[in-house]
Amino acid sequence: MGEEAPPTPPATSLYVDGCPGCAIERKKEINKGIPYKELLFVAATTIASALPISSLFPFLYYMIEDLHVAKTEQDIGLYAGFLGASYFVGRFLASLFWGVVADRIGRKPVIVFSIFSVVIFNTLFGVSMKYWMAITTRLVLGALNGMLAPIKAYSIEICRPEHHALGLSVVSTAWGIGLIVGPSIGGYLARPVQQYPGMFSDKSIFGRFPYLLPCLCISLFAVVVLVSCIWLPETLHKHKNIGNNEIEMLSDPGTPRTEDIHGGKNLYKNWPLMSSIIAYCIFTLHDTAYSEILSLWTISDRKYGGLSFSSKEVGQLLAVAGAGLIVYQLFIYRPVHKFLGCVNSCRASCALSIPLIASFPFMTHLSGYRLGLALYFAAIAKAALGMTILTGTSLLQNYAVPQSQRGAANGIAATAMSFFKAIGPAGAGTLFSWAQKRQHAAFFPGDQMVFFVLNIVQCIGLVVTFKPFLAVPEHYDLK
Asked: Could you please report the per-residue DSSP string of 210-252?
């Protein structure tokens, strides 16, 4: 059934004055409840970081058209894939660096700088008039936005052991909401002159820069989050020596004692960490490719196997999926995690995703309310299952290392995941463009091939959640 950490002897609460990490430990010892305020900060900063990643998906098709780089309509998916991948290439190059920095100087400075980079470079992307400028701003934004590694470590460190799953699920859910609400913002606010001719003029700044409005709204939200970071407490221990006058707080009672097991161990030789990172990367590759394909598929013409949606309709679909994800996280995820545990919940979610994804291409035969019900249900279910998988693998990563290595471990995960996420949009765009040219093939024609390949990736992910490949930490026994 579920997995539980075995009980450990209570640690003596020894703190160092002036150490922010010790202050957080003392606060957790006094207040045994859920740290709602800190988790709200985590959710807000995560959403602000995630919004720019996917906000371009609903208008990416039109943006490539307006930039005049695709020679034919079928080539648009190819160029869209490269633009979608540029952010993840930048993050791949810098994530490990930001994770190490977060272990050296603290989680908060990296988080603050990352949100600041969103404000600047997301706005610059909105005023891109050339394809090279769009790719460059996205690449730099990905390289400077190093928040993913420290925010995962932070969400663990502000919670007591019994709330660790909740802390990481807040990150996963907020990330998922950002990746879903982002396209909603892009879908409703991109090309405002065409969508709302009574409110916006061709001669206005939004007429000249048709994709600035959604980027500007996201940047303004990031400004609000940036100001709120003033009240964000640091969680990293700032003392290193264990001696007469300076004693490091080892753990809370009941916390998995990773310091005793993996302290000082080479992260790349830590197989529980590396196996969970590999599984995590496969699932993020799948989710990123799915997000791009869903947007391209719904917006493409029915003659190419799509649904002929407008960008506004795509935004509405993803907004509803985001709302469903919030409900799932608040009322369903915690009982599921408590009953099944990390690994089994991942396996079950992965297995359920396979028939769900296989159903998408058959929705092209539906219309009206039948299409709406099927598509909205599938989008909500897929978002919930994806959040369960990513939260479970993230928990295993963070339990496999001590706090002193948590930022670097999450940095390695973010680096590897960014590589796979860079492959995701580029591969999905190329696959989608190729599939549109084979509508009458005998073997999985058109969009059926796209979702078939997605399911192959999901099946690989399911396989690696089993032993002997996946190794859970020694203190986190799988029953």
From this structure: TTHHHHHHHHHHHHHHHHHGGGPPP-S------SSS-------
